[in-house]
Amino acid sequence: MNITFPENFWWGAATSGPQSEGRFNKKQANVFDYWYEIEPEAFYEQVGPDTASNFYNSYKKDISMMKEIGLNSFRTSIQWSRLIDDFEEGTVNEDGVRFYNAVIDECIAQGIRPVINLVHFDLPAVLQEQYGGWESKHVVDLYVKFATQCFQLFGDRVSDWFTFNEPLVIVDGAYLYQFHYPNLVDGKKAVQVAYNLTLASAKAIAAYRRVNKNKEGKIGTILNLTPSYPATQSPEDQSAAHFANLWMNDMFLDAAVKGSFPKDLVEILKKDNVLWDSTEEETNIINTNRIDVLGVNFYHPHRVKQPSISSDSLAVNWMPNKYFDNYDMPGRRMNVDKGWEIYPQALYDIALNIRDNYDNIPWFVSENGMGVSKEERYLNADGVIEDDYRIQFIQEHLYWVAKGISEGSNCFGYHLWTPIDCWSWKNAYRNRYGLISNNIHTQVKTIKKSGYWFKNVAEENKFIMPDDLI
Questions:
Q1: What is the DSSP letter of 214?
Q2: Which domain holds residue 391?
């Protein structure tokens, strides 16, 4: 079956500054730099972000390889800790300006559309230590200074901007489930951080619209949408899935697209005495500065059932999962290396949800990918990793994206995570996601079989879906 895509479809891949650049010539530490300094054993094989994929030094060659595999668009992020020298004043570091100018110019020279995100979990460490990071509305205003510098410095060439990548992960990782620094467990702070991130995004959008002189320019946010499916159709399981969706999807999505938080969620948070502190002025800022475009990161679904313990008995500290238990559905397909379920049809469900409930806002798949460990197992005699599993993964997800488009969902692109194997937070290089492999000891980079396959899809704007995968 031929699967075709709209004209001018974005075929690309995504990475981030802190995961690709390395710490070269970077005077300020972000929270992951700092965490690695004080606790290197927390990172897989004690591999930190100091070198990453060496993109700071090899960006020209790396971007050329991206062109070689057919990318017409590429998302990365500008590191706050690289661009800004004085966080209070918002003054810039000249080498940071030089570097990001060079990256943007090289993308354009290679015919690749630069797509720029502003924060990818990489809060400057000093702002965490001095102010409590995103717990502070002062940090929100410092972020707006950083964002404004980015718009003014690079907005003449960059027309696609995103305020945050996966704000929910900042909330969950740093304030609930202890997989991001500072590893707190504090439900009240988590809820306030969710609000402050939403406020920061809206304020940055307002700043963009004040200074933007690019008629083609658009600004949005990137959310990891993880549909929550109930284990059964019982009222209890349905209720669990409803709350899980409120927290994991609708909280940020409603605020970004509709300009307000879901009423059901607000009522629950208020009942539980954890609702964020806000002002009428802030509420108005959120309401009047909605996104132009949405990025959707999708990796796996979320399956839930009614909680096994009564929520009333969990009085020590508020947690969102007081309202649901995770559910391991029998027979589900798994990526055993990552421990994530493979369920491509969820992208179709996302597409129709955006069409029907979010004004059919223009959106693209901003991340989708398959992390696999020890990929050297699949090296052929020519030194190419034969990652047929990744090709099949992409095919299956693109099939459901195309089906959503055919039914009217306004999806304009697909970005794989990631172009080149990159450093992944605590997991470092345990799992590889790239279309291009990276030997982290030599920094020799080699196109995988999936990279050659992706090039053909991008050039043809279509692919043949094998019958046995439908």
A1: -
A2: 2-469
Catalytic residue among 106, 135, 282, 367: 367
From 166, 282, 375, 396, the catalytic residue: 166
Q: What is the pLDDT of residue 314?
A: 53
Look at residues 214, 217, 200, 125 and name the one whose alpha carbon lies nearest to residue 165: 200
**Which of 103, 75, 70 minimizes the C-alpha distance to 15?**
75
Which pair of structure tokens corresponds to residue 147? 């964002």
Residues 6+ apart with CB under 8 A from 95: 25
Cα–Cα distances (Å) from 210 to 312, 339, 361, in that order, read 47, 44, 22
Q: Which H helix or E strand runs over 205?
A: helix 187-211
Q: Which residues contact 413 (CB under 8 A, 6 or more apart)?
A: 9, 10, 11, 12, 73, 364, 365
- Partner residues linked to 70 by β-bridges: none
145 in Cβ contact with 211 (< 8 Å): no
224, 267, 293, 305 from 366: Cα distances, Å:
9, 31, 11, 29
Active site residue 367: yes
Alpha-carbon distance of 385 to 435, in angstroms, equals 10
Q: What is the pLDDT of residues 42-70, one digit of tens each?
A: 999 999 999 999 999 999 999 999 999 99
How many structural domains does the chain have? Answer: 1
**What is the model's pTM?**
0.98
Other beta carbons within 10 Å of 111: 9
